[in-house]
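Input.
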Amino acid sequence: MEREQSAFPFDDVADDEPHALAGADPVEREPVADTAPLESSRALALADFSVPRTGPLDAILRWAYRVGMSPSLLASPLRKPSKPRLLATVDSPLSGENGLGDRGAGMALRAGHFLVNGVRAPIAQMDFGPGARLTPPFARSVHGFSWLRDLSACAPREHCVAVAERVLGAWLDANPEGTKGPAWTVERAGQRLMAWLIHAPNVLVGDRPALRPRLLEAMAQTARWLDRHVESAEDCFGALTGWCAIVAAGLLLPDGRARRVYGEAGMLRALGEAVSDDGGVLSRSPLAQMDAIALLVDLAACYNAVGRAPPRAIETMLGLLVPPLLTLRHGDGGLGSWQGAAATPAATIEALIAASGVRARPARDTSHWGYQMASAGRSVLQFDAAPPPRPRHARFGCASTLAFEFSHGDQRIVVNCGGAELAGGQVPVRIEQGLRATAAHSTLVLDDANSTAILIKGQIGKGVEEVDVTRSMVESGKRKAERLEASHDGYASRFGLIHRRILMLSSDGGELRGEDILEPAKKRGQRGKIGFAIRFHIGPHIELRLAEDRRGAGLALPDGSYWQLRLGGVEGELGIEESLWVDGEGRPQPIQQLVIEGLTSRGGGSFPWLLKKMG
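Output.
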């Protein structure tokens, strides 16, 4: 680095050396408010959504449809089945130039390429068939037809029809009725059917009239396939996607009343099984949270298209889903990097929230979903204070328990690597498991081991089972501070140690005090030493310089401000290592990380530190 030493004013810290936070008098005095432990996080509590109470006719229709009676027979037993057609045109607030579509990806489609997370693939060379080995991001776009939303964002409909017809025709040619493969999971089929129903005008008014009956028949076929397979979905969220598509088909395709009432019952049940009591999806993924909101917004638009009021539960669930998502917004308006998500940009979040129609404040304490948030001044602190998702709910499960992210204004100072869910775009697939590891998060690691086992295909194994959380307001020196404290048992069975982390954010947001504590899991600790590392992945465009005593480091931010990290205690030294951070466009960015590393007793240890804004 070319910056002069004076840019990192270590001499200014004087009496601000970190102290142990667990009961040490110089830092913590009498609490301002009662300190009450929050409920331990073991498994997320499910929201209570039951089958709607309807009249006897709807109950009979639901039962008859469930046992396999044809919708046309139930709708009108004395006439011929209706020909496939669309009953209405859907106007979703998520479509168009102000929606969620990626305008750049839409322009690339018009130029003859798919553009997925920064990677281009020519349409002419794309294998749409069941044997194609597509990476997860490409499979979602190609088989889930999310590219239709991108296309709607880039130009008026008449300029996009030819491209939509080209891709749709190629996909239908490669996937005739009865085809199996990656396109025929419940989630992919549900995504595809919703996209077809909502964006039908993009592909039904072009110069290829023969494509119209093929698409209408494909819609009907996909709806029938979902009727039969939705209850065997891969996970709760996949089932929710399938049920929403069934309801949409019941609204927009002929003879759909029986399908609609059948789908509504399944959808409400799936909502209760996929979402926790405080509104967080069970995969704990911010991207899945966004997908759930988008699903319900699109489904509400389908109800509006046919002049029917959506079930009240949809509005209620949107009101539950939005506040937890806002909890994970940093000062720049984008999301934190949690459970495989990247730093989703502010514009995307704003478009989604506007489309939901929900006006709410961030939920500070989402105990069931597992994230705690504290804000003061221009600073935002996010803390993962829960076990990873259960294996049956995990999508890109990460061993991130007790990791934190910290931002000041629009600058992210401490981050997690993130981006595992985008692997297969510019993020190489080979590093997907590494991005889910404990070391890819800003927390303590013992003996280079994950606090929860990371398995292939997004799954996780044994590790953290329980997290105890406490939050309170305390006196820190002459100032008030918000204190978050949590502990996990992920290293208890292997190393006999409990990891406890305390974070205290000052009332002006200019000081974050932390302490990582290792405690014996049993009354008597083990003998010997064990290696530890406490990692702070530092946000992009921040320059680092170590102090000469290797007990501190200076952080020069792009806005000209300076922060300093100082160590307390006697164990461990501070070093700088390379790292990476996946941005909101799915691009890996080279960053650096500060690492406190050393050996500590297997009987326990304490590692206090201080991150402070200078001047």
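The longest helix spans residues 286-305.
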